[in-house]
Design goal:
The protein has 14 helices and 21 strands. By secondary structure, the chain is α/β, with parallel strands linked by helices. The strands form seven sheets. An eight-stranded parallel sheet has the order 9-19-18-16-15-12-11-10. The protein has a three-stranded mixed sheet with strand order 6-20-21, with no helix packed on it. Helix 8 crosses helix 10. The longest helix has 25 residues.
């Protein structure tokens, strides 16, 4: 990682500013300095008019991530986060590029790491799609007075009545919590996810860091991952969950592996991942036993044999330009579920240039895959899950209209728990205790409160989905799967609308 500190060239993009008229430092308040986990706020001895020395908050102007923790915790509302302008008005060499070069030319150089999802200028297609609501001759439905069915099932669908469908996942809401591993996340967050999904009737994904033994009681609502590093994978692990997901790639970093630094590998993480304490957890870019669709098929059925064909097997891929034929191959290889992760998908640590310049938008990928599977007559053999950049309940429903059966959400989970999207997840210093296992920080997550927050989020989104469905005169979410006639484009090109399979508004 490139050294951000002790580099005279770097201009930090943010810094805290203090209103000393409101600040209570004269009475000994030091909450802001205590709550800052990045070392941005220090305490400076200042002699007052009475001759007494007091500790005044001071911005170091070196490492603020704009997490807003100090702002939220200040009892006197005396802090705000200011944007630090860079003195350049060049329209090509923008501050982002200049600062990146300064950082990489510092003491250690190296690859710049960031957290969360991509921030590039690429179009967010969800914002350019509108639902086609009912008027006059096709009446809407009032979800307060009429039943609305948002339950869905993931797995192979029957092609004819009475045909065996194989193992299924039953979702009371078409939303699951996406893959975020133990080590990248606090164990308390995993417990909150597990408890919330059991309460609501949906699923959470462990990510590639194994399944902690203390959470095995939540296995009926858990999806475990088999990734290239095979962390924590054993027969017991595979049989402890409701589904198994083979992770080929993810939207935040298509084509590259993962890295959990050794300083994060504590005793519990070591035991769960089955690696030595203090050792780097390296996930290679490829699975070294998968170099063809035939190899993938072999692994899919090896897992099915290991679990006695009791649970569905999913395959997760990053959204790339040839996602449609890849999805077709995966379906024919025997997968029950395919997860497609768009380039706006988040991650704890991703090389900046990979995040910003690799992959394609989720909306285009899911539409292309759904259309290809329909054209080949194999859509019913597999379920599609959309992931990467889902921001709200309307995104969920638009993804379903484009062809998804359900969605994964990741960053909304973190935000619900307090995350300010400061993009410093890789540092291990998360101010809210979410993406860290450091003592003193991890304890900031209250499991009961976190569980309630996630339950509230799912309840709220479910109600909004019902309202949206009612406005379209549709009472079952299955009737919207791949129903692109319910979407209309605003401001998209003919090529974009062709891939999405939707008409322009007014047409």
């Amino acid at each position: 990682m490139a050294d951000m500190n002790n580099n005279w060239k770097v201009i930090p993009p943010f810094h805290p500013e203090f209103d000393l008229q409101r600040c209570d430092y004269e009475n000994g308040c030091t909450i802001c300095a205590h709550e800052c986990s990045f070392g941005e706020i220090a305490l400076k001895p200042v002699k007052g008019p009475d001759g007494q020395v007091r500790q005044r908050p001071w911005a170091n102007l070196s490492s603020c991530g704009a997490c807003q923790r100090c702002v939220k915790m200040c009892p006197r509302n005396a802090i705000h986060i200011a944007c630090q302008p860079m003195h350049t008005s060049h329209n090509y060499w923008t501050p982002e590029y200049v600062n990146a070069i300064w950082r990489q030319s510092g003491a250690r150089g190296g690859v710049l790491l960031v957290g969360n999802g991509a921030t590039g200028p690429q179009r967010r297609y969800f914002d350019h799609m509108m639902f086609d609501a009912c008027q006059v001759t096709n009446p809407s439905i009032d979800p307060l007075r009429e039943p609305m069915e948002i339950r869905t099932y993931l797995g192979r669908k029957a092609e004819r009545f009475g045909e065996d469908m194989g193992p299924q996942l039953k979702l009371e809401v078409p939303i699951m919590f996406g893959a975020m591993s133990f080590g990248a996340l606090n164990l308390r967050v995993h417990e909150a996810e597990a408890r919330a999904t059991r309460s609501i009737g949906t699923f959470w994904n462990t990510g590639e860091g194994g399944f902690h033994k203390s959470l095995r009681e939540y296995g009926a609502n858990t999806i475990v991952q088999v990734a290239s590093g095979r962390f924590g994978v054993s027969e017991d692990y595979l049989n402890s969950a409701a589904a198994v997901e083979i992770k080929i790639g993810q939207g935040a970093k298509p084509g590259i592996g993962g890295h959990l630094p050794g300083e994060k590998v504590s005793g519990e993480i070591s035991e769960t991942r089955m690696i030595p304490v203090g050792s780097d957890a390296l996930s290679p870019a490829p699975h070294h036993d998968i170099y063809s669709i035939e190899d993938l098929r072999q692994l899919i059925f090896a897992i099915k044999e290991a679990v006695g064909y009791r649970v569905p097997v999913s395959v997760k891929i990053a959204a790339v330009h040839n996602v449609a034929p890849i999805a077709s191959g995966i379906a024919r290889a025997g997968a029950d579920i395919i997860t497609i992760d768009g380039f706006r998908g988040g991650s704890g640590a991703t090389p900046l240039q990979i995040r910003q310049n690799t992959g394609i938008p989720l909306e285009l990928a899911i539409a292309a895959a759904d259309q290809r599977l329909r054209e080949e007559g194999i859509r019913q053999t597999v379920s599609l899950v959309a992931s990467g950049g889902i921001q709200c309940s309307s995104d969920v429903l638009k993804a379903i209209c484009l062809g998804a059966d359900a969605v994964y959400v990741g960053t909304p989970v973190l935000i619900a728990l307090g995350c300010g999207v400061c993009q410093r997840c890789f540092s291990g210093k998360c101010a809210y205790g979410i993406t860290t296992n450091r003592p003193g920080l991890a304890e900031r997550i209250d499991v009961d409160g976190a569980t309630a927050a996630l339950e509230n989020l799912l309840h709220a989104w479910a109600e909004e989905i019902k309202e949206l469905m009612g406005s379209m005169g549709i009472s079952t979410i299955e009737a919207l799967r791949g129903n692109r006639d319910r979407l209309r484009a605003v401001g998209l090109t003919a090529g974009e609308m062709s891939i999405l399979g939707i008409k322009h508004a007014g047409a």
